Amino acid sequence: MDCHQDNSSQGEVLPQPNEFQKLLQSLPIRKSLLNTNLYLYDGSWIGESCLESLIDFQQNFQAQDTDIILVTTPKSGTTWLKALVFTITQRFQYKISDENHPLVTTNPHGLVPFFESYRSIAAGMPRLFATHISYTMLPESIKTSKCKIIYLCRNPRDTFVSMWYFGHQIMSKLDPSSQFPSPEECLEQFCEGVIHYGPFWEQILQYWKLSNEMPEKVLFLKYEELKGDIIAQCKKMADFMNCSFSSEEENDGVIKDIAKFCSFEHLSNLEVNNQTEERSVPRLDNGMFFRKGEIGDWKNLITTSMAEKLDQFVEQKLQGSGLKLN
Ligand code: A3P
User: Fold this and answer.
1) Is the pTM here over 0.90, yes or no?
2) Catalytic hit among 4, 132, 168, 266
3) Which of 56, 137, 154, 290 is the most buried (most CB within 10 A)?
4) Which residues form the Sulfotransferase domain (predicted)?
């Protein structure tokens, strides 16, 4: 039934759709793996619950030159990046030896908000924000100001597997009676690009190209590189954010301490990261953001032939870009 219709037989006039509802009606729609609505907006698949605040953000957010924006593919290590960037940029204000350091009492997502909730945060310095959206979708003021973007992605095999487990957990909270799709079904939809903020390869390629064209604006990182040499990557991030570590700090082991403080082992064992928070619907346990934190866990969920198919698919999408994700 058309919801704007005047149902005159019953004498009722249904409410007219507002601008947002009209927009929704005009967008291509698909079901997400969680069986919720995804809308194709500005070239990306966006969940209905995020879309309205995203549009508000696009229209109203004013970037400042000192802002740092963390952009990530979902399940690529966003929580880790938030913790690292917060600790690095705020290290003069909050010593990690302090037992009340914000990361000890607050989950990283509470310290570096996603843009969807940008209105609710008190600004620190520099202001830190996070998002999963493509460069195309970012507000103009982010593109034209001197604010900086750190982009993080991850090997698609592990990203996919992390996403599958995350989705599985959310589904069991949302609707315990329904079954989350199998890895095979999910992989198909993953490669079709019909996942939250997908298609993932288009977004990765956008930020990859920008990081080459404007290295002072966009820093491109990979989860595997963080795992491989966290000290070098912390230095790279600090240099990029204009808050380089001094040689004195380096000699005093400050970078090593920050890396340890933000490690999976430390963060996942903190009490705060094992609690449930009224963040959104469904309620998310902070612990859901810390599963294994390993490279290569895909082996425990998908077959080698599924992984090879995914590799071939991704290789084809990245062809000619010079970017390798495996
Ligand atoms: P796994 O599911 O493979 O364990 P996001 O933060 O983007 O949602 O990504 C979540 C993934 O990052 C999960 O991967 C999670 O375990 C991992 N992760 C979270 N904190 C981490 C940390 N401090 N170090 C390394 N990996 C971390």
Assistant:
1) yes
2) 132
3) 154
4) 65-322
